[in-house]
Amino acid sequence: MTDVRSDDFTRINTIEDVIPLYKGNGLPEDRQYIGFETEICVYKNVEGKPVAASSQDCAQLLQRLKDLGHAPQLEMASAVEYASPAFRVTEVPQLVKEITQSFTDYNDAIRAAGFVPNDAALLPFVTLESAESNLVDRDRARGLVKGMKLFKEPEFLKVTLLCTSTQVSLSYKDTDDLHDLLTTGYALQAPIYALFGNYPAFIEGKAEKVDVNPRAAFYEAFGAQGGIPDSLLTAKDGDDFIRKHAQQVFETPLLFYYDEKKNLVWPDQPVTFEELKSIGLNTRSNYDLAESFIYTDLKICNIRDESGHPTGKRIEVRGFDAGKLGVEGSVPFIHATLRDADTRLAVKGLLAEYGLSPDQDGWQERVKQARHNAAFHGGKFLDVDFGVKTDGKPGNLGDFCRELGNILELHAQRNPGVAPALKDVTDICHSGLTLAEQKSRATPDYDFANRQLAASASNDNQSQFLPSARLKRPAL
Length: 476
Prior knowledge:
Blueprint: E1 33-46, E2 49-52, H1 55-67, E3 73-74, E4 79-83, E5 87-88, H2 92-112, E6 116-117, H3 128-133, H4 139-151, H5 154-162, E7 165-170, H6 175-187, H7 189-195, H8 214-220, E8 226-227, H9 230-233, H10 238-251, E9 253-254, E10 257-258, E11 264-265, E12 271-272, H11 273-276, H12 284-292, E13 295-296, E14 298-304, E15 310-321, H13 324-339, H14 341-353, H15 363-375, E16 385-388, E17 394-396, H16 397-414, H17 419-431, H18 435-442, H19 446-458
Parallel strand pairs: 8-13
Antiparallel strand pairs: 1-2, 1-4, 1-5, 1-6, 1-7, 3-4, 7-15, 9-12, 10-11, 14-15, 16-17
Helix pairs in contact: 2-13, 6-10, 7-15, 8-15, 13-14, 13-17, 14-16, 16-17
């Protein structure tokens, strides 16, 4: 949970004032950067039952990780975050090694402290009420939860308090590069949510088996602040997109904002950034804060220097669930599909076969429907409609993933340094059996789900479903 800096009082009066922020770094593709972060939900075994870590537990764990030389962050409830350094896109094998070693170090430290890292996006027994009792001891966190309860749909809190995820960040050259990354990335959201779906068969303490992808479904309830934004779907090109995105930021409701003394202000009703102009608080800090309240699948975020000052923008791909599969496979997957020239071209060609290329009439509705089908799969997981084939018949997500798996295998052959990290993903592509479906099949009822977690606490939490030197770099 990274705070927005509160000390940039540069006035933002019109969209023209922020357009330069989104122009990109101007660097060629081989000098672009890629970064990674993941959230690790933590619980403990108390008299044979799994119990989520308290705020005090997490504070002690955070200090233990810092004492070991790591730089963790606390999430809202019962979770810690690891963020990698940024690497050049030509150095993905090194980044994969950095992530793998750090994830091992974090997991070892968590277990050594008497806790268990959860290899999934949610814990079955955690409810909104129980998660709120474990909220981190920060005024901003408490105020955010209060504001969401008052003014937002329940799904906002469910994402914030119940879910953990993995994200991959990419820098970009210019607005054309940004637009290409976003249109391709959004077309891949259904496969990302489905292939990397790693959630239990039961959630929120309920006896009914889950028949949706929880995070994908929750985000869809965010409306204009989640899922796939109209700012992209209606944009003619990259320049048009950043104008429409900036307009969305101006119109996004904030639950809180910063005053002229850098203090947080909690209004009686949410206010937009546009409305802050009337009280002279239309600052860069509040603009960045408003942007942070947009939770789309590909989020536009700041790039910060070592002191935390924004230096540019990046995109953050956010559809990956927490856990080993996403940790190991998300970076090589995103690099392959969005940054490797040959593989990206093959992926874009495959998407076009399913009517999901931005130069095809009707692609906007097909992209939105594909995402919806992956989110609300009704227990069918990959066996849902995905796009429209050239013969006019509905495509199938499982068929697309098998073809995508072939492309990723060719990518791995050309890039042996990432082949091991991609293998679990390509295995799922070919088998059509996701981790979420495996867990659903193997978990007959809610009590069994919790017994599995308790047993994992005694068996080092090794996943039964998966097949089978730290570097200093600037943060992305």
